[in-house]
């Protein structure tokens, strides 16, 4: 198993290094065991993504104590009753998508004096089952979050699974540029090479690194 995860990471990193501006690889470790995660850490991976607070606390409190240079990204739907834990554990929160969440994040950030970077999630395909602000509301939402003091540094999206992603990626990169944000998080195992061509600064890969989720 060591060799599989390490060799997959090496192969992906080789592809990333060929890009003019290599993106940060977020290894999505949701549903993956601490054993597999540890193999990835030992292979040199330092940035990880999770989508459930409870699972993250169980797996990552100890791992973060053990490996102090780990950066953890939250990429799931964040409920307001879990925001305190999210602010304590995560370094980047990629899924800010409503004002209630913004207010709760600010409250807990101030109380804890800890300010994880925030990305605004955009529902680029306007899919009813997906989280994220609608594209027509995205600019105003970003402006409002920034005006309130939320440290918004990027945008994130998951395009519709059944459609070609290029136009969605280009839209998201354009939005990021227009708002003069540093980061654009897009691209998963199936489409990350396209996302890199479209200017992703962060790609989020799960199965390409760890194999099928347990
Ligand atoms: C699970 C997940 C990923 C990783 O998906 P893979 O297809 O396994 O690469 C990326 N982003 C988000 C938001 C996810 O929930």
Structure notes:
The chain is an alpha/beta fold and 214 residues long. The chain has helices at residues 2-17, 34-42, 53-66, 83-89, 99-112, 135-148, 166-178, 192-197, 207-210, and strands spanning 24-28, 47-50, 71-74, 92-96, 117-122, 152-157, 183-185, 202-205. The chain has an eight-stranded parallel β-sheet. α1 crosses α2 (34-42) and α4 (83-89) crosses α5. The protein is globular. The structure holds pyridoxal-5'-phosphate (PLP). Residues 28, 30, 51, 75, 158, 188-190, 204-208 line the site of pyridoxal-5'-phosphate.
- Overall pLDDT score: 97
What's the total count of β strands?
Answer: 8
Distance between the termini: 14 Å
Strand order of the largest sheet: 7-6-5-4-3-2-1-8
Secondary structure category: alpha/beta
Shape: globular
Q: Helix coverage percent of residues?
A: 40-55%
Number of helices: 9
Please compute the radius of gyration using only Cα atoms: 16 Å
Low-confidence blocks of residues: none
What sequence of helices (H) and strands (E) makes up the elements? HEHEHEHEHEHEHEHEH
Largest sheet geometry: 8 strands, parallel
Q: How much of the polypeptide forms β-strand, as a percent range?
A: 15-25%
Bound chemical compounds: pyridoxal-5'-phosphate
In short:
The protein is of the alpha/beta class. The chain has nine helices and eight strands. Helix 1 packs across helix 2 (34-42) and helix 4 packs across helix 5.
């Amino acid at each position: 198993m060591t060799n599989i995860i390490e060799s997959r990471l090496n192969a992906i990193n080789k592809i990333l290094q060929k890009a003019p501006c290599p993106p940060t690889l977020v290894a999505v470790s949701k549903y993956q065991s601490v054993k597999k995660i540890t193999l990835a850490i030992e292979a040199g991976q330092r940035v990880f993504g999770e989508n459930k607070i409870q699972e993250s606390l169980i797996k990552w409190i100890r791992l973060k104590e053990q490996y102090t240079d780990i950066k953890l990204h939250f990429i799931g739907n964040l409920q307001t009753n879990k925001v305190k834990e999210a602010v304590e554990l995560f370094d980047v929160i990629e899924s800010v998508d409503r004002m209630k969440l913004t207010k709760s994040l600010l409250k807990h950030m101030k109380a804890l004096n800890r300010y994880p970077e925030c990305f605004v999630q955009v529902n680029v395909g306007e899919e009813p089952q997906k989280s994220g602000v609608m594209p027509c509301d995205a600019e105003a939402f970003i402006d409002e979050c920034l005006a309130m003091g939320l440290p918004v540094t990027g945008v994130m999206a998951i395009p519709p699974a059944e459609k070609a992603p290029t136009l969605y990626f280009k839209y998201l990169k354009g939005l990021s540029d227009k708002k003069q944000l540093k980061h654009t998080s897009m691209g998963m195992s199936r489409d990350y090479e396209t996302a890199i061509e479209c200017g992703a600064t962060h790609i989020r890969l799960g199965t390409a690194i760890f194999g099928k989720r347990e």
